[in-house]
Design a protein that fits this description.
The protein is an alpha/beta fold. It has two domains: 247 residues, Hotdog Thioesterase (Thiol Ester Dehydrase, Chain A, Roll); 217 residues, 3-Layer(aba) Sandwich (Rossmann fold). The chain contains 16 helices and 16 strands. A ten-stranded antiparallel sheet has the order 1-3-4-5-2-7-10-9-8-6. A six-stranded parallel sheet has the order 13-12-11-14-15-16, sandwiched between helices. The radius of gyration is 26 Å and the shape is elongated. The chain starts with 6 loop residues before the first strand and ends in a 7-residue tail after the last helix. The C terminus is likely disordered.
C-alpha cells in the first residue's frame, strides 16, 4: 500500500454519538448533552475517545494485511474531537512489527495510536462464561477524588458482543467480537464508573490474550490515584484483554455563590431603583452579577441563548430569597431590538457576558473565520445592543463590557480571542465618545473560576465576588472606574 492510500477521514455526527452511547452504555453528559457540556473543558459535546480508536482500528483491519497479527494497542488521547467535525486518520508507520497512526482534526493531533504486532494470529476462543446483555444506568457516578483509590469491580455493557461486531465488522473478524466489546467497555468504565462524571480518557495500553481471564466481563481496579495531578490509573482484564487505562478526574464545574452568601456583601437597598439586563445571566459571572444586584434590591432580567431550565433555576433561587428576577430568551448574534421588545420596564444597566466557545480547534496560528466569529460577539452584537437600548430611553444607560487580561498576556492558541477583545475595547472607547446616552465600563478581568476557565487540575483564580461587586458599584457611579 502506498503512502497516498494510508489515510482516511470520518465525519462524526450526533447520530453516531447516539449509536455509540447505546452500544457501550457511555452516556457521559460531555458527550451527549450540549447544555451540560458547556460546563466542561471542551465547552461542547465531544466524540468518545474509544469511538475514534475503534474507527481507526476498523480501518486498519480492513486495509493493512499485517493487522491480522495484532497483539497490543496503545493510544494517547491528546485533544478533543468535537461532534459535527471531520477527523483524519493517517498511517505514519506500517511494518511487520508495528503500525503507528495519528488521528487529527485540521492541524491538531487528537490521538496517537500504536498497534504492536505478533508472530501469530489470535486464537479463535470465546469467553469462558455466557454473556448476557442487561440495561445499564445512564447516570454517571460522581465520585470524590479520595473515593477513587479504593474502586474496583466489573463493567456493565448494555449490548452483546455481536452488536459491536455489526458496527466494527473487520476488526471483530480479526480480534473477535468479545474483544471489541471489551475495548468498548473501557469507554463506559471511564465515563460512567471511574472516574465517572468528571472524567477525561487520557490513554490506554492493552494487550490481546489467548487465554481468557475474567469470564464474560471486564474487571477493573484502581492502581493509583494522584490527587495533586488528578491522575487515575486503572488495571483492566477480561474478555480477552489485559492492561492499563490512564485517566484524569476533571475539576467539577465552577459553582457561583448562593443568594444567602452574597447577601451579606451588599446593602439591602444598595441597588434599589436599578433594572439590570444581564446578557448571559444563567451561569458564571452573569449568574453572580444577577444575585448581587437582586440581593441589593435591584430588578434583574437574565437572558439565555440555550438552557432555559438553567436560567429559570437561577431566577427561582433569586425569587425564593425575596429578589426580583425575570428570564428572557436572547441570542446575541441576532438583532437585539425585536428580542427585547418584551421588556416592560426601562433598563438602567446592562452586563454583557455573551460569548462563544473560547477554546477552539483550528488550523495554524490564525483563523480569520474564528476571529470573525469572536468579533460578532464582542463588537458587532455588542454595538447593536447598545444602539437598541439607547434608542428606547431618555436616561443614560451604563453598560459593562468584560474584556480580558488575554489582551495583554496573549495565551497560546487564543490569538483570535485576544484580537477580538482588543477590538471591542476600541469600540467601547468610541461609544463613550460619540454615542449619546450610553456609558460603557470596561474591565480586563483576570482568570476567574467559570466554565470556560476550567482545567484538569486546580489553578489559582481570583475571587469573582471581589472582582464583580466593585464593577457593579462602578456602574452606579459610586466608585471611580479603574
Amino acid at each position: 500500500m502506498t503512502s497516498e492510500n494510508m489515510a482516511t477521514t470520518r465525519y462524526f455526527s450526533e447520530d453516531n454519538q447516539q449509536q455509540f452511547a447505546k452500544l457501550t452504555g457511555d452516556w457521559n453528559p460531555m458527550h451527549m448533552d450540549a447544555i451540560a457540556a458547556r460546563r466542561t473543558q471542551p465547552g461542547a459535546p465531544v466524540v468518545h475517545g474509544i469511538h475514534t480508536l475503534l474507527w481507526a482500528l476498523e480501518w486498519m483491519a480492513a486495509q493493512i494485511p499485517e493487522f491480522r497479527f495484532v497483539r497490543q494497542i496503545k493510544v494517547d488521547f491528546c485533544k478533543w474531537v468535537y461532534v459535527g467535525t471531520t477527523a483524519s486518520l493517517t498511517i505514519t508507520t506500517s511494518n511487520s512489527k508495528e503500525i503507528k497512526a495519528r488521528i487529527t482534526v485540521g492541524d491538531i493531533v487528537a490521538a496517537k495510536v500504536t498497534v504492536i504486532l505478533g508472530d501469530a494470529e489470535l486464537k479463535k476462543n470465546t469467553p469462558s462464561s455466557d454473556y448476557h446483555s442487561h440495561i445499564a444506568s445512564r447516570d454517571a457516578k460522581e465520585l470524590q477524588f479520595e473515593e477513587m483509590e479504593s474502586q474496583s469491580g466489573t463493567v456493565d455493557i448494555p449490548t452483546p458482543p455481536e452488536e459491536f461486531a455489526n458496527l466494527f465488522p473487520q476488526l471483530a473478524k480479526i480480534v473477535q467480537p468479545h474483544r471489541v466489546a471489551a475495548l468498548g467497555s473501557l469507554s463506559r468504565l471511564v465515563g460512567m464508573i471511574c472516574p465517572g462524571l468528571h472524567s477525561i480518557f487520557s490513554g490506554l495500553n492493552v494487550s490481546f490474550i489467548d487465554n481468557e481471564i475474567g469470564g464474560a466481563a471486564v474487571r477493573y481496579r484502581v492502581e493509583r490515584a494522584i490527587e495533586r495531578y488528578r491522575i487515575v490509573t486503572l488495571e483492566v482484564e477480561g474478555l480477552g484483554i489485559t492492561g492499563r487505562v490512564e485517566t484524569f478526574s476533571r475539576v467539577p464545574p465552577a459553582l457561583q455563590a448562593s443568594m444567602d452568601s452574597v447577601a451579606c456583601h451588599v446593602g439591602t437597598d444598595e441597588f434599589s431603583g436599578e433594572h439590570a439586563l444581564i446578557v448571559g445571566g444563567s451561569r458564571g459571572l452573569g449568574e453572580l452579577t444577577a444575585k448581587l444586584i437582586a440581593a441589593g434590591g435591584g430588578d434583574v432580567t437574565i437572558t439565555y441563548a440555550v438552557g432555559k431550565q438553567v436560567a429559570e433555576s437561577v431566577a427561582k433561587e433569586i425569587q425564593q430569597s425575596g429578589g426580583r428576577c425575570s428570564v428572557v430568551a436572547f441570542n446575541a448574534l441576532r438583532p437585539a431590538a425585536p428580542q427585547l421588545s418584551c421588556l416592560t420596564k426601562p433598563v438602567t444597566q446592562v452586563y454583557y457576558y455573551a460569548t462563544g466557545q473560547i477554546f477552539r480547534v483550528k488550523k495554524g496560528l490564525y483563523s480569520p473565520e474564528i476571529y470573525q466569529e469572536f468579533t460578532k460577539f464582542y463588537a458587532d452584537s455588542f454595538f447593536d445592543l447598545c444602539q437598541s437600548l439607547a434608542a428606547d430611553t431618555s436616561k443614560s444607560i451604563s453598560v459593562f463590557y468584560p474584556s480580558s487580561v488575554a489582551v495583554i498576556d496573549r495565551p497560546a492558541d487564543m490569538t483570535e480571542y485576544a484580537m477580538a477583545k482588543a477590538a471591542g475595547e476600541v469600540l467601547c472607547e468610541d461609544i463613550n465618545r460619540y454615542m449619546q446616552g450610553v456609558r460603557v465600563v470596561v474591565s480586563r478581568l483576570p482568570r476567574l473560576p467559570t466554565d470556560q476557565t476550567l482545567s484538569v487540575v486546580p489553578v489559582r483564580c481570583s475571587d469573582p465576588l471581589e472582582i464583580i461587586l466593585p464593577i457593579i458599584r462602578d456602574m452606579q457611579g459610586t466608585e471611580t472606574k479603574t
